[in-house]
Structure formats: structure tokens, C-alpha cells
Amino acid sequence: MKALVWTDKQKVEIEERDIPDYTGKILIKVAYAGICGSDISVYLGKHPRAKAPLIMGHEFSGTVEAIGAGVKTTLKKGDAVVVNPLYYCGKCRACLKGNTHVCRSLRLYGTDTDGGMTEYAAIPEECVYRLPDGISLKMAAVIEPVAVVVHGLRMIKKDFFASACVTGLGPMGLLTALMLKDAGVRQLFTVEANGRRAEYARKLGLEVINPAETDSVQYILERTDGEGVDVLVEASGSPAVAGTMTEMAGVRAEILLLSVFKELVAVDLWAVNFKEQTLIGTRVYTKLDFLDAIAYVSQNEEKIAAVVSHTFPLEEGQAVFQDITGGHTDMMKVLFQI
After folding, report:
1. How far is residue 327's CA from residue 330's CA, in Å, rounded to a whole number?
2. Secondary structure of the chain: what % helix, strand, coil (to 5)?
């Protein structure tokens, strides 16, 4: 089979591999695989767990090709499926409390072991979800990042948002903004310094503040009568934004840290105290979040399709990763069609 393999820092190659042993697993014929920010970290050689050679990709969909020996399942050959790439120890305190998504030794297909940027993948039955009728395999490949957003927004305790702000409009931030807009937020602000991403979001009907041109804090305070927003979702991973998010957020606001910071950042904890703000950490998703993401994408396929900007064959993998990491592209969500 054909596979896109990360072989060294900033290097991926097409290799011919044997179809993986699927004894005790489901063999999936992969249709689409998405590129995530963590895949970029792997490609750059910065992911702490990934080891070369590795078939990347934890956002993928396809069809059941075969059922491995010993597997008892209602799935059958030809079923359209999506993969929940998380696997866990089942023994640590988090797992024993039912919080397997924050397992002490949580692992992912495509990061810790071979994933979906290949023609065939062997995955345990418990990680394979049958898709509802009508949903395209292309959009199904976006279910995993949607599940991240579903889980994050579920962590917010407020039932109604008079005002909200999303900082950073990469795929995750853009999905978050679209879902908040669906939720009926009265005032929705977004912040994005990349001109191409900002324009992309404006075409989808979002109000975008470019901090290179406008003081984001001042702009939001002026339009909220000096109060700040009720909910702020940080999706940029920018240390500069981390330093201002408590200013943009109001009294008793909730600040959701959807992005994963790669370094220590300065946060105004004085403001957290005196405004009684809540900082919310979030990581991946639960099985329920994943099921809800399947339902959301199934019901909003046209809207989700707007987030996918490019689709490429696996053979262009090296050029695609170079373009993304080089910043010379207008790509948003990128998929490989296999």
C-alpha cells in the first residue's frame, strides 16, 4: 500500500508498505486525512512523543475493508466510518474516574503509532464509528477537530453568551467562531493578525479585528461599554494574545484555553482575581463529544465545508507541508485525498 511517512525533520516521503496486520482490529480503506497543528509539530521534529519513521494523521475517514479475526462488531465491509484516534491505559486515576481523554499516558494514532495518511489503517473496533447516512467522507475527516471544539465549548459553564471573542482564526478558531455564531451569541468578535485568514473569515460573515491595524482590547471595550466579553476562546497559541486576554474579558468572564501553548506565557493573574475570571483548560474530547461532533457535521456539512480550503493527493505531501510551514500559502483546513 501507499503511505506518506515522516522520515526525518521537515521530510515526508511516499513509501510502499505492507497492508497492516488487522488481527483483532478493523481494516479501514482510508478516503481522506486532515493535517492538524500537531502534524506540523511532528513534521518540524518538535513533537515530544513522535518517533520516525511514522505515518502521520489522526483526522481520517474511510470505509471498512475487512473485519479482523476475533472482532465482534456490527460493522461490515463497505460501511463508511470515522476514527476516534485516542487510546488510553485504563488504569490511571483519570481513566478509573471515566476521564479517559485526559489519561496520564494518553496516546493517538498518527502521533504515537501509525495513523491515517495511508491507503489502509488497522484500528481497534472501539475507535471506529459508523457514519450516518448522507455525510460525505470528505467532511467526515473534519469530525475530529470539531470534537475538540465541542468539548471545549462544553467546558464553558455559562448557558448564554451575550458577547464572546475568539482569538486566532486557524481551523480550530474558525470552527469555534462558526459554532458560537450558531449558538446565538449577540456580539461575536474575532482576532486574527494573518491577513489571508482574516479575509477568509470575513467571507464567512465574521467580524475580524486585525491587531496589527487596530488595538484589539480598546476595540472590544468600546463596543461592550467598557465591560469586555463574557466568554473568550484563546485559539492562537500566541504569547502576546495571552498577555491581553484578561483585558478583553469582563467581570466573571470565562477564558477557554483551546490552544496549546508551546512555551511559558505571561498572564495577568491580578485581573483574574479582581474580575473573578475563570481560566478553563481543555484537552481533546470525550466519546460523547465525538458522537456529538459526528451529529454536528452531519447537520452542518455545507458550513463545515467552508473551513476546508484545499485537498491534495498524498504524492504532494512534501510540498504541502513545506508550503504550510513556510507561510507562503492561503491554506486553511487541508485534507489529503487517498
Report:
1. 8
2. 30, 30, 40
Rounded mean pLDDT, 187-200: 94
Q: Where does residue 303 rank: exposed (0-12), middle (13-18), buried (19+ CB within 10 A)?
A: middle
- Measured in residues, the chain has a length of 338
Q: Containing H/E element for 18?
A: none
The phi, psi pair for 161, rounded to 5°, reads -115, 110
List pLDDT tens digits, range 237-282. Answer: 999 999 999 999 999 999 999 999 988 999 999 999 999 999 999 9
CA 160 to chain centre: 24
pTM of the model: 0.96
pLDDT tens per residue across span 48-106: 999 999 999 999 999 999 999 999 999 999 999 999 999 999 999 999 999 999 999 99
Place of cell 495513523: 115
Q: If you write DSSP's letter for every residue of 231-254 in order, what string do you get?
A: EEEE-S--HHHHTTHHHHEEEEEE
CA distance 144 to 251: 33
Which pairing describes strands 187-191 and 208-209: parallel, antiparallel, or unpaired?
parallel
Residue owning grid cell 480598546 = 218
Specify which residues 4 forms β-bridges with. 14
- Over its C-alpha atoms, the chain yields an Rg (Å, rounded) of 20
* Cα 172 to Cα 201: distance, rounded to the nearest angstrom: 12
3-state secondary structure of 57: coil
3-state SS class at 281:
strand
Name the phi and psi angles at 187, rounded to 5. -120, 115
| Cβ–Cβ under 8 Å, residues 173 and 156 | no
Task: Return the H-helix or E-strand segment holding 71.
Answer: none
pLDDT in tens, 17-35: 999 999 999 999 999 999 9
Q: Is the dihedral of CA 265, 271, 273, 275 positive or negative?
A: negative
DSSP assignment letter at 15: E
Written as nine digits, the cell of 331 is: 491554506
